[in-house]
DNA sequence: GCATAGTTTTGTCCTGGACAAAAATGCGGC
DNA sequence: GCCGCATTTTTGTCCAGGACAAAACTATGC
């Protein structure tokens, strides 16, 4: 019943959806509006995409993830497009960052893990995250946008980094100290690396972290907060998350939580909006997590837990 | 631009597609043909599915995975359907499984972790996975279906289980032995627990596992396989994953991989289909992973790797 | 009893229209 | 001159109903 097993380098619309992440509906409406992609038709009149068009679509997707819009890109000449792809490179990364890119180029999981492990052992968890892991992630994102790295390589890196961090976090003491912090993301937000970074900073600083992974319904977030006697809810948002949805969700949560508990919002994007909500604190950069912890501790001295 | 943020327990068609694995087109054509599901409409005239209908759809999917066809199921009376479901329900869970449900009811992450840790220390990784973790996951799934557990509690459990497993896996030796196994899932398949279970069985048995997480594009899977000198590709599919998509993807991959390399497909659903593909092996249950490893080693004796 | 031919079921594709959310742009007040 | 708000453009996702091949089932002949 499937019609995607085309003999040559021609892909059916389902296969293109799978490979590019663009919905069938989007592919059809682009064809209607912009004249691209313009697939051939098979004997049944169904769309068959040559590989070249699929690769062009992938280039478009990379540029769109950087903020370009389809209409602009479609109007571009071939030369202008290539220039854009070339220019998306940022400043030259430091050599310690490029070193790990080489291990990724070889898809050598063991070497990646060794790189990370060495660095972590040398610098400790906090410096490892702030000075190494985050810059590397940024650079990998750019390499992906340039087409120098594919999703498989990005996954390989993420997996090793996760293992590395989780292992290190699990080795920190679970003290009975405060604050107790619940970490999660909103529904449809899958990006868990931000949570893991935050946990990696907070746990060794003595905060009791409980991560419940990504994409938790709002009702369950507030229920967990109330049941679990948490002081802080830490939420992570990727740049792509719709700001409106985030803000309305935050408003709802802020209203529902226990008096005295805080929400920390990790997002480079939302922090720009000055919408002040009571009990909500925006952390524009990852290092702000630690200052937030300090501030909280200043306001809640361990001797007298009576206030609340 | 997304319209999935419905206030109550009403899901848009995209959310239903995501949760049930039934394509939007299938949902619409069922409505047209059978009159079910018959969603409400919002102010815009767009389909909004009450939770009850989504759960009924999930029931249908489970039965269809057992070989039932939609037309038959739709014609069934409520009583007949319930009888069918009851006959497929498992036995009552053992007390050791229900014990952890109590800690989840209290949302006590530390207690959950302690439960898991104790059990793991007692039984070792393989027995822990097969005799404890998997039954608990099944029971949690049923508790969720009954409404006894919310998503937040499920997440809490999953996170602790992941930590537990990853830690244990990372402590196994990385031997230079064979086979080398690449683990991942197809695009849009987010379920990573299956991968982690497989890794937890394979790694202590001396197989060199590399997981690259979920949702990897097919092209990247085959590229990683070829670059990385892997012997086996292990793929995990949840029950919700569209079987057709899985099969066409497997066909594509099988054709592209190096001669002599195998694909192991972990799925309770696909294993029923007798569609034989060269080099593809279906593992209906998690314990089959270990017998697959044995079979592989019998066919590839370490002394003489000359045989193809 | 089994293979083959015919029938029904079922999933996926098609066209072309619509519309709200997001992004970009224009405009007025400090 | 610059920031905040209103307006316009862009863009992704939804809809209806029709079509058809692959798969599943059924009937028929040897």
Automatic annotation (TrEMBL), chains A, B:
Taxonomic superkingdom: Bacteria
SUPFAM superfamilies: Cobalamin (vitamin B12)-binding domain (SSF52242), Putative DNA-binding domain (SSF46955)
Domain HTH merR-type: 10-85
Segments forming domain B12-binding: 178-304
Alphabetical list of InterPro entries matching this protein: Cbl-bd_cap, Cobalamin-bd, Cobalamin-bd_sf, DNA-bd_dom_put_sf, MerR-type_HTH_dom, Meth_synthase_dom
A Pfam family that the UniProt record links to this protein: B12-binding_2
Protein name (database record): MerR family transcriptional regulator
Origin species: Uliginosibacterium paludis
